[in-house]
Design brief:
Helix content is about 55%, strand content about 5%. By secondary structure, the chain is mainly alpha-helical. The chain has a domain of about 140 residues: Ankyrin repeat-containing domain (Serine Threonine Protein Phosphatase 5, Tetratricopeptide repeat). Strands 1-2 form a two-stranded antiparallel ribbon. Strands 3-4 form a two-stranded antiparallel sheet. Helix 1 runs parallel beside helix 3 and helix 11 runs antiparallel to helix 12. The protein is globular, with a radius of gyration of 24 Å. The two termini are about 45 Å apart.
Length: about 375
């Protein structure tokens, strides 16, 4: 292993004593970069939460605000994402940019502390509070992630366009409503709808917020709004003696609200049973009753449907949501757990293994 590789490994491992010895032999190696995105030693140590190594590197003169070339981040972005409060504090004390605009996700440091899955614990909240105390400000996505209703209200009051702001291409240009549903923040979903969010807004792939739901009630206010539109269309169609104009959103909303009568009228009026991913999305959200209703009317449990960048079966999405009861319903209806998706070439059993659902692996393998 080369000297540079040894230095990189020492920074990753938090081996401050070893790193001192290696840098003493070659002080210029302080500026070595790690492949593939040219991470500095500070990025490596901050990402892993190695406080002693971070302090060592800063003491040796490594620039606290150097960026890497993957996500164009500072080390403080990664410390924040990891919930490493002590590291974030030391970096901020050393002059680290606590705002950090310009990262490839357009989230700033406070977004890295709050907007990823698993960032809703006490450690990440403490990081966000520290960042605000040092001069950072919440944007609409970080405020949603932290369930800060008053902050969201203030942001939208100051700039109503923030209600429709899009995330970066890395997040498929989700809007705040999509993000609130994805993060399973029902209170934020209700607030956004109250403030005027469009229930029919779509992401870059043309998906409604419903495509992000992994629980039956994650987007109930959105479903209620769409159901009102469906009811108005049904009334208009009847008044004009014409067929109602319906789509998959109408069907999903009716099923999500338990309005099976309207769901039946939607299916009768349009080709929406197997064309728009209704079974897939009801499986993803864990709506057992909705899944059973669709299967009873002939929905194909083995149909592959394009869910963002991969064609998947309803079983894949039931596994993704961790919905064992829906998995069983689909299997009982003849779903094949060996059908692979088009991106990862993995069947539902492989997905269950990947997401650590050993209970589902057993069910799917029998």
């Amino acid at each position: 292993m080369s000297l540079n590789d040894q230095i990189i490994e020492a920074a990753k491992a938090g081996d401050s004593a070893g790193l001192v010895a290696l840098l003493d032999r070659n002080p210029d190696a302080l500026h070595v970069r790690a492949a593939p995105y040219e991470w500095s030693l500070l990025h490596l140590a901050a990402h892993a939460g190695h406080l002693a190594v971070v302090e060592l590197l800063l003491a040796r003169g490594l620039d606290v605000n150097t960026r890497e070339k993957g996500d164009n981040t500072y080390a403080i972005h990664w410390a924040a994402a990891g919930g490493h409060l002590a590291v974030v504090r030391v970096l901020a004390d050393a002059g680290g940019d606590v705002i950090g605009r310009g990262d490839d996700h357009d989230l700033d440091v406070i977004g890295w502390a709050t907007c990823w899955d698993g960032c809703d614990d006490a450690a990440h909240r403490a990081v966000a509070e520290l960042l605000v105390a040092r001069g950072a400000r919440h944007h609409v996505f970080s405020a949603i992630a932290m369930d800060l209703a008053d902050v969201v209200r203030d942001i939208v009051a100051a700039d109503p366009s923030q209600l429709h702001r899009r995330m970066s291409r890395n997040e498929n240009h989700q809007r705040p409503l999509h993000f609130a549903v994805r993060m399973n923040r029902p209170r934020m979903v209700s607030l956004l709808m109250e403030l005027g969010a469009d229930p029919l807004s779509v992401d870059a792939s043309g998906f409604l917020a419903a495509a992000y739901a992994t629980t039956p009630d994650a987007d109930r206010p959105v479903m209620t709004a769409i159901a009102s539109m469906t009811a108005a269309e049904m009334i208009s169609a009847a008044r004009g003696a014409r067929p109602p104009k319906v789509n998959t959103a109408d069907l999903i909303a009716a099923l999500a609200l338990g309005d099976m009568e309207t769901a039946g009228r939607v299916v009768q009026a349009g080709d929406v049973l197997d064309t728009g991913g209704a079974l897939h999305l009801m499986a993803r959200r864990g709506d057992r009753a909705g899944v059973q209703w669709l299967l009873a009317r002939g929905a194909d449990p083995n149909k592959r449907w394009n869910h963002w960048d991969s064609e998947v079966t309803p079983l894949h999405l039931a596994v993704l949501g961790g919905h064992a009861n829906v998995v069983q319903v689909l299997l009982d209806a003849g779903a094949d757990p060996r059908i692979v998706d088009s991106k990862h070439d993995s069947d539902a059993i492989g997905w269950a293994r990947f997401f650590g659902r050993t209970d589902l692996v057993e069910v799917l393998s029998n």
